[in-house]
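Re: Re: ligand-bound prediction request (bumping)

Still looking for help on this. To restate: I need the protein modeled with zinc ion bound, output as structure tokens. Inputs repeated here so nobody has to scroll up.
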Amino acid sequence: MAKRPKTIITCAITGAIHTPTMSDALPYRPEDIAAQAIAAAEAGAAILHLHARRPTDGGVSINPQDFAAFLPQVKQATGAVVNISTGGSLKNTIEDRIAPALTFSPEMCSLNMGSMNFSFHPLAKRYDTWKFDWEKDYVENSDTYIFRNTFADIANVAKTLAPHDIKFEHECYDVGHLYNLRFCMDIGLFKAPIFLQFIFGILGGIGPEVDNLIFMKRTADRLFGDDYRWSVLGAGGAQMGLAATASQMGGHVRVGLEDSLQIARGQLASSNAQQVAKIRRIVEDLGCEIATPDEAREILGLKGADKTAF
Ligand code: KMH
Ligand code: ZN
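Reply:
Sorry for the wait, this slipped through. Here it is.
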């Protein structure tokens, strides 16, 4: 039997959905983001998907200075691939959102493949008091947000970052996003092999059912043939089950507190590393090996950590 491909674990450390009230484990100070990222890498994450937060109150930040406060520490302490988000804010222009990737020229960055409703307002009902002033409005008002990623925005990211040789984590929240990506490839915006992140369970995107994973995978097979690598992210309670299913199907996996605050049903995770250790255990118990950072670089065709600007 052919050897099974190794599984790349990505860990998304803090994101821009959850807020400090929701979990004491969610890191927002730079030293906590760095410590959790390093521990996640030690637990087996080959890729670290990183957002910044305002150090004072955990608010969402796309300020390159807030990234500068943890990127060198992460690089010095781990061999992990650093992936910087370009989707971190629902309220800023794409020009502002790409500033961190443009400043630090990481090996990877996220690229969201379509405009959509992107809402987490139902979470607001769970909390009577909030740690910081901004949180309640931010979460409640997410039913008014449009996550803007037009074709012009996508082309802007591709062209602006082209000189940096950054591999994109193409975030696909629904099947139409795969067709958007095919179109972008046809007009020459991206080089194979592309890396798809299939995302399930965001309110505004496709739901977290295995049927949908199979549908997305089949559609990607049809659209991209052998020219793509893929990973799965299930939001909230769907995180571990969909990741385990993806690894059995030959895909890669993403966990982390950006995507779910839980370690099991009704139980908050104590850290990102705890989620990485759990998915690693599942993946290995089911007979797959996890990829080291250098194996991930090889699988995805990355430029190397020595070519970053931090
Ligand atoms: N902030 C969310 C709207 C990404 O990292 O590119 C989406 C997001 C995706 O965080
Ligand atoms: Zn993200």
